[in-house]
Specification:
The protein is mainly alpha-helical. It is built from four helices and two strands; from the N terminus they run αβαβαα. It has a single domain (8-103), classed as Metal-dependent hydrolases (TIM Barrel, Alpha-Beta Barrel). Helix 2 (33-41) links the parallel strand 1 and strand 2 (47-49).
Length: 105
């Protein structure tokens, strides 16, 4: 689900349909509690990260032009929410992306 911005209920429905949940800058926004809860509960093998550049820059660059270098803030927020390191999230989401690509090539 590109730029997932739903809560746990939408996440469950999407996951049941076989989708991955791709989190962008929205997950870093202080009031995005529902998105953050979805990020916590999503299975580790079904999460991705994205920029959605040039839109939806993560905190601390919210409101500015988004770019791939800012994805680090999204990864760090996911790591904090899930009790993992940024390196673990980066490795996991890279593996998930590669597995997803192989599925459709």
């Amino acid at each position: 689900m590109h730029c997932f911005s739903g809560g746990p209920d939408e996440a469950i429905r999407s996951l049941e349909l076989g989708f991955y949940l791709s989190f962008g800058g929205i997950v870093t926004y202080p009031k995005a509690i529902e998105v953050q809860e979805a990020a916590r509960m999503a299975p580790v093998d079904r999460i991705l990260v994205e920029t959605d550049a040039p839109y939806l820059a993560p905190v601390p660059r919210r409101g500015k032009r988004n770019e791939p270098a800012l994805m680090l803030h999204t990864v760090e927020k996911l790591a904090m929410l899930r009790g993992q390191t940024a390196e673990e999230i980066a490795a996991t989401t890279t593996n998930n992306f590669e597995r997803l690509c192989l599925r459709y090539t």
